[in-house]
């Protein structure tokens, strides 16, 4: 619903190549989610002379919330690597991901308003198995690294960093073994925790609580269903294997947020406050997956990074570490991919630029992202003002 656009030629058609070498690596990327993988793949495509290291401590079996990938990804994914889109389509055919046929929302009123992907020139969007999609990207990064000895993905945990005049020293830990790496450029792709961020500015206190439901019946509804209530908003989407994720969003200090973190409270809020989502679950005989780890909560607030004042520090954030969007926007993954492509171009140009010209590169990047944040905040305020509810949750946002 809310769309944040990067107004950049992110395709990188005329990227500059890094020539020459130093004792330190040109680039280290901390984090190997979508943003980190996108940055690594984009950098690897620039030429064999750009060496990079990706530090990977992800658990491939851990569920990740945030499964909505817009159809626009079809025009972006090929710029990451030729195999990314074909692998996504194959995994969807194999039932790992599911196609999304549209969006139905009861937002401005109690009646559903629908949009269908058949009207989208890019086709249908996806409900992803996020852990599976991220692991697929990591596999492609690994294959790229295996073909180029200058690139490497390390399964190791980032623990700290120090800055000298000309380079960064990165500290990481393998079980029982401390490692050190040096680089000119660091890319923070560590997600909302923003491992390198100097100051994260949070614009609200939105908190998401999510749970899973499964059914033995055939559910033919592949839309994303969104519904606002007095204390917040809900959505549900169908994943693979007749499983639905159901997510409740409210302020983390709202009493209903605490209530939703236990199964009894979650179900009471769901069936007591929603109409369309409750009817969909009941009509398809969905039962809660009574796993001890769920319902589970996670921050969902809008946030952005206060960038360093000195552009010569040679670090940059990408993905949620740079700016995190309200889930209502469904733009987090798309923007992370675009940011990875832009960051790769920025770093490549910096590695080729004379020292006195460095300041001409990073400010343009920061100014562009400032405009993205401004555009996103304007659209977010508009959409939150369209509901019929007048509770405290909505007053804060309208």
Automatic annotation (TrEMBL):
Classification via InterPro entries: FAD/NAD-bd_sf, Flavin-dep_Halogenase_NPB
An MF annotation (GO) of this entry: flavin-dependent halogenase activity
SUPFAM superfamilies: FAD/NAD(P)-binding domain
Catalytic activity, as annotated: melleolide F + FADH2 + chloride + O2 = 6'-chloromelleolide F + FAD + 2 H2O + H(+)
Entry coiled-coil feature ranges: none
Domain of life: Eukaryota
GO BP annotations, alphabetical order: secondary metabolite biosynthetic process
The family this protein is said to belong to: Belongs to the flavin-dependent halogenase family.
PANTHER family per record: FAD-BINDING PROTEIN, SLR1998 PROTEIN
Protein name: FAD-binding domain-containing protein
Taxonomic source organism: Clathrus columnatus
């Amino acid at each position: 619903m809310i769309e944040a656009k990067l107004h950049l030629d992110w395709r990188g058609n005329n990227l500059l190549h890094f020539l020459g070498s130093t004792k330190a690596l040109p680039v280290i990327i901390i984090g190997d989610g979508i943003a980190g993988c996108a940055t690594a793949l984009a950098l690897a495509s620039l030429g064999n002379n750009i060496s990079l290291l990706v530090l990977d401590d992800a658990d491939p079996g851990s569920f990740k919330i945030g499964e909505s990938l817009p159809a626009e990804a079809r025009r972006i994914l090929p710029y990451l690597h030729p195999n990314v889109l074909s692998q996504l389509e194959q995994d969807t055919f194999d039932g790992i991901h599911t196609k999304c046929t549209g969006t139905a929302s009861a937002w401005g009123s109690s009646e559903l308003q629908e949009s269908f992907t058949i009207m989208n020139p890019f086709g249908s969007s996806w409900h992803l198995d996020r852990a599976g999609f991220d692991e697929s990207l990591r596999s492609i990064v690994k294959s790229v690294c295996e073909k180029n000895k200058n690139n490497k993905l390390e399964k190791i945990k980032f623990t700290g960093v120090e800055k000298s005049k000309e380079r960064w020293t990165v500290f990481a830990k393998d079980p029982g073994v401390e490692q050190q790496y040096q680089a000119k450029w660091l890319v923070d792709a560590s997600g909302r925790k923003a491992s390198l961020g100097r100051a994260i500015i949070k614009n609200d206190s939105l908190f998401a609580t999510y749970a899973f439901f499964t059914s033995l019946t055939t559910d033919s509804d592949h839309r994303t269903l969104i519904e606002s209530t007095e204390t917040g908003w809900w959505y549900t989407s169908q994943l693979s294997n007749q499983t639905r994720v159901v997510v409740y969003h409210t302020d983390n200090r709202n009493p209903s947020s605490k209530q939703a973190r236990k199964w009894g409270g979650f179900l009471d809020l769901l069936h007591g406050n929603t109409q369309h989502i409750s009817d969909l679950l009941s009509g398809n005989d969905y039962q809660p997956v009574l796993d001890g780890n769920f319902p589970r909560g996670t921050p969902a607030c809008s946030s952005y990074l206060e960038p360093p004042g000195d552009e010569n520090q040679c670090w940059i954030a990408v993905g949620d570490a740079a700016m995190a969007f309200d889930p209502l926007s469904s733009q987090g993954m798309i923007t992370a991919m675009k940011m990875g492509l832009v960051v790769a171009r920025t770093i490549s140009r910096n590695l080729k630029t004379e020292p006195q010209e460095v300041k001409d590169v990073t400010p343009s990047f920061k100014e562009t992202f400032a405009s993205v944040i401004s555009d996103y905040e304007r659209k977010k305020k508009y959409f939150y003002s369209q509901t019929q509810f007048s509770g405290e949750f909505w007053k804060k946002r309208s």
